[in-house]
Amino acid sequence: MRRFGRGSLCVALTLGCLGTAAHAAEHITLRNGFDLFCDHREANGQKVRLYVDAAGSSFLEVDASDIVSAEQVDWPKPVATEVPKTTAIAARAAVPEKLSDADLQPMLTRAGTTYNVDADLLASVVRAESGGHARAVSRVGAQGLMQLMPGTANDLGVADSFAPTENIRGGTAYLDALLKRYNDNLALALAAYNAGPAAVDHWHGIPPYRETRAYVARVIREYNRRYALRHPAELRSAVTR
C-alpha cells in the first residue's frame, strides 16, 4: 500500500482502467475556481447549459460570464453498467444518512487497494468533503461522500454518486489521477480536487483561495492524525533519528 509519509508519495494510475475508449469532452473552469467536465454545452441567452451526457438529460446552467476557460479533452469513455431502477432505489434507501468510520473503512480499504492509495488519506478526504454524509450535495452540485460533480462522476463511470461504494471508487480514481498529474505532490493534488486542476495550473501552485488553502491544510492535518494513530512506533522512530 502506498503511503504519504511527511510529503512523499508514489502514485501510479492508468486512466485506461476506467474504460477502453476515449471520447471528446470539454474541461470547463468557472470563475469561482471550480471546474467540471461536460459532454457539450449550449448557449441559452445569457446562460450556458453544460450537459454532462450526450443525451442531454442532465445539465448545469451557469452565467456565460462565469466561464473562465474551456478546453477540449479526451476522457475515458465509461463502461456502462445497467442497474434496475428499483434495485438502485432500494440500495440507496438502505444506506444510512451518515456513515461511521466503521461503515466506511471496508469501502475505503477496497478502493485504496485498487488504486494503491492509503485508506487513511481517503478517509481524510471524505471527512473534509462530506463528513460521512452519503447524500451530501454542495452549493455547486457536487454529490456524495467524496463530492463528485455530475460531469466528473459520469466520466468516471459512476452511475449513482449517492451510492457510497461507487462514489468512493470514483473519487479515489479521480484523486489518483490528480496525484499523477502533479507528480505525486499531495498538496497540489488536494488543491486541484477542491478548486480544479485549471486553477492550480493557472497559479502554478495552490490557488490563493481561502477555502482551498484551508481545505488542503485540513485534509493533511486529518491524514497526519490518522496516520499517527495507526503507526505510533514508526513516528517515534522517525523523531529519534
> Per CATH, which architecture of one domain?
Orthogonal Bundle
The SS-based structural class is: alpha+beta
Query: Order of strands side by side in the largest beta sheet?
Result: 2-1-6
Helix content: 40-55%
Q: Which series of helices and strands comes N to C?
A: EEEEEEHHHHHHHHH
How far apart are the first and last residues' alpha carbons, in Å?
A: 24 Å
CATH class category name of one domain: Mainly Alpha
Which descriptor suits the 3D outline?
globular
Low-confidence blocks of residues? 5-22, 76-83
The total strand number stands at: 6
> What's the pLDDT, averaged over the residues?
78
As a whole number of angstroms, the C-alpha radius of gyration is 18 Å
Question: Which fold does the CATH topology of one domain refer to?
Answer: Lysozyme
SS summary, helix count: 9
Q: Report the β-strand fraction as a percent range.
A: 15-25%
Sheet with the most strands, sense and barrel status: 3 strands, antiparallel
Write up what this structure looks like.
The chain is of the alpha+beta class and 241 residues long. It has a domain of 144 residues: Lysozyme (Orthogonal Bundle). Helices cover 44% and strands 16% of the residues. The chain is built from 9 helices and 6 strands, in the order E-E-E-E-E-E-H-H-H-H-H-H-H-H-H. The protein has a 3-stranded antiparallel beta sheet with strand order 2-1-6. The longest helix is centred in the last third of the chain and has 21 residues. About 11% of the residues have low confidence.
